[in-house]
Amino acid sequence: MSKSNWTKRSLAAQGMGHIDPITRAVIPPIHLSTTYIRDADNRYTSGYIYGRPDNATVREAEGVIAMLEDAESSALLFSSGMAAATATILALDAGDHVVAPRVMYWALRRWLAEDAARFGIDVDFVEMDDLSKLRAAIRPGRTKLVWAETPSNPLWTITDIAAAAQIAHQAGARLAVDSTIASPFHTRPLSLGADIVMHSVTKVLNGHSDVVGGVLASARDDEFWARIKRVRSGQGAILGPFEAFLLIRGMRTFPLRAATQAAGAAELARRLSAHPHIARVLYPGLPQHPGHDVANRQMENGFGYMFSAQVKGGETAAIATAAKVGLWKRATSLGGVESLIEHRASIEGAGTPCPADLLRLSTGIEDPDDLFRDLDAALNAAHA
Question: Which domains does the chain have, with CATH numbers?
């Protein structure tokens, strides 16, 4: 059976079916060399020159992600999600305008608000789930990039990717989508009209809380993509080969983990919605979620592994609840096999759109019944 007939799950499980040509190993080697031998005629026919712009192990991992995302060009791995995201902005010209969501990953929101202007980039923030506000924010002739994040962290609002792409393209702009929470298991933005998709591979793609990295995949191998490559090379922002090896390892089980985590999140969101100490659960898989219909149209295999819960009793009760869990771990980040809980407003600080009574929860692969019992006990103790 030809590889061309394999499903994405099978390709991910076998790391695209790579067999080492020398040892016949089923696991690819880690290529650590920083430099490579020239040919006698002074060329580099191997395709590798130096470790800063390129690496064979990194290319292996990029190939798996490009396959998962249906990317025309190969993906590009970066040393962090922030490095990937900011490389997209730095590939723009001074004087260009960006529209970004008001609710998004806090570190990138802060960078866009505080640092982008130093590179001559103007940024406006809008409620990206309201398409009329997106249209109104477009500056004809100047807007060159619309940055969306869906579901958005940590309020889980939903952006209609196909509609946002149409608005951006009509203005001569590109649409880039941070799809970290959805992952390729639930959403493939490029197939919906986006130009670039970004992930923090730190999260569910790797899934083991032991790699920091980011990735971009593009619908086209064009001049803008070439600019992004130059930014990565010039800043030395490529992912390390050992981290790339761990990422390949993690992605082999990615579809299985993503399915388990999404099912657990859906079950917990449903049960917590009826809890006497919970005021509101934010999860696009719930029918009452304002973005449910759009999410149901553009997501598949569930609605992701993340949700938030607003606790009755406000900030004090929310922090007390997080303090009393046992199975859930009080830690930042998300997407690992372990379930994490966090009082998000404390992390984001001043200017956060996150309510003070909100707990952000990342569902791992533990038994959902155990996770619910742990939360239930913590909520009851916090309200005793």
Answer: 3-251 (3.40.640.10), 255-382 (3.90.1150.10)
CA distance 65 to 248: 9
Q: Is the pLDDT of residue 201 over 90?
A: yes
DSSP 367: -
Q: Cite the DSSP H helix spans in 78-203.
A: 81-90, 106-114, 131-137, 161-170, 183-186
- Among residues 96, 129, 160, 178, the one annotated as catalytic is 178
Active-site residue identified among 203, 229, 344, 360: 203
Catalytic residue from among 105, 129, 305, 344: 105
Residue indicated by tokens 């490559």: 229
Q: Could you tell me which residues are beta bridge partners of residue 346?
A: none
pTM of the model: 0.95
Q: In whole numbers, what is the pLDDT of the chain averaged over residues? A: 96
Task: State pLDDT tens for residues 152-191.
Answer: 999 999 999 999 999 999 999 999 999 999 999 999 999 9
CA–CA–CA angle 269, 303, 173 (5° rounding): 135
Tell the residue number behind the tokens 């149901």, with chain if given. 296
203: annotated active-site residue: yes
How far apart (Å, rounded) are the C-alpha atoms in residues 80 and 177?
Answer: 16
Q: Which of 8-12, 274-278, 368-372 has the lowest mean pLDDT?
A: 8-12
Those residues with Cβ within 8 angstroms of residue 81's Cβ, 6 or more apart along the chain or in another chain: 105, 180, 198, 199, 200, 201, 202, 213, 214
Q: Name the active-site residue from 9, 36, 48, 52.
A: 52
Answer yes or no: 178 catalytic. Answer: yes
| pLDDT cut 70: percent of the chain above it | 99
Q: Which of 81, 94, 188, 186 is nearest to 144 (CA)?
A: 94
